[in-house]
């Protein structure tokens, strides 16, 4: 669901995937290999929103801003399920945890990780490689090389997902019985705790 607004038409690179149940409106630019999940709303009605290459905005996220503001989600930014980005800029290869809220004029530094359900107040400046948690959110430590390696691997899965969706996602009628030889998907990614044990 892609909508023009006051003659602004979203720009979406052909390698990216926008789920049909997402809503992209107005002055939005989506780079290469981006994934936009169902229920996501990216509203460029009052300002410009740029998603650089490799960004993912997962299910039920909202990206918006106050009038006249413009924001950028830099390369490989990873926005977890249900997060809200309202007028904030996200650094390169950062992770925004599920159900987090990042408020106006906040800046999340490159390779920072914002924990699930964190609340980042307006105008907060998070330094690069910071681990941020809580409500209000606070920097609790520096992101380690191992943590950013884990984050980067997870984002790479989302950068592959647009190609997989273009190739295989289609609307179907449901089966009425479980097939006898139904396979379970293979594990392709570990939790941070399991990753750190390796």
TrEMBL record:
<dbReference type="InterPro" id="IPR001451">
    <property type="entry name" value="Hexapep"/>
</dbReference>
<dbReference type="InterPro" id="IPR050484">
    <property type="entry name" value="Transf_Hexapept/Carb_Anhydrase"/>
</dbReference>
<dbReference type="InterPro" id="IPR011004">
    <property type="entry name" value="Trimer_LpxA-like_sf"/>
</dbReference>
<protein>
    <submittedName>
        <fullName>Gamma carbonic anhydrase family protein</fullName>
    </submittedName>
</protein>
<dbReference type="Pfam" id="PF00132">
    <property type="entry name" value="Hexapep"/>
</dbReference>
């Amino acid at each position: 669901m892609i909508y023009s607004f006051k003659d602004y038409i979203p720009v979406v690179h052909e390698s990216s995937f926008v789920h049909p149940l997402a809503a992209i409106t107005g002055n939005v630019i989506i780079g290469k290999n981006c994934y936009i999940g169902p229920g996501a709303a990216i509203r460029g009605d009052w300002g410009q929103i740029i998603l650089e290459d490799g960004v993912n905005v997962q299910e039920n996220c909202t990206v918006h801003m106050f009038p006249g503001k413009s924001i950028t989600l830099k390369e490989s930014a990873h926005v977890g399920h249900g997060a809200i980005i309202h007028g904030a800029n996200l650094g390169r290869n950062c992770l925004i945890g599920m159900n987090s809220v990042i408020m106006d004029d906040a800046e999340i530094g490159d390779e920072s990780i914002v924990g699930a359900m964190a609340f980042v107040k307006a105008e907060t400046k998070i330094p690069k490689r910071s681990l941020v948690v809580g409500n209000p959110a606070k920097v609790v430590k520096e992101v380690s090389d191992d943590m950013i390696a884990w984050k980067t691997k997870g984002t790479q899965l989302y950068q592959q997902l647009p190609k997989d969706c273009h190739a295989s996602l289609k609307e179907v009628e449901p089966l009425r019985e479980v097939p006898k030889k139904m396979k379970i998907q293979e594990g392709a990614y570990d939790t941070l705790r399991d990753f750190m044990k390796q």
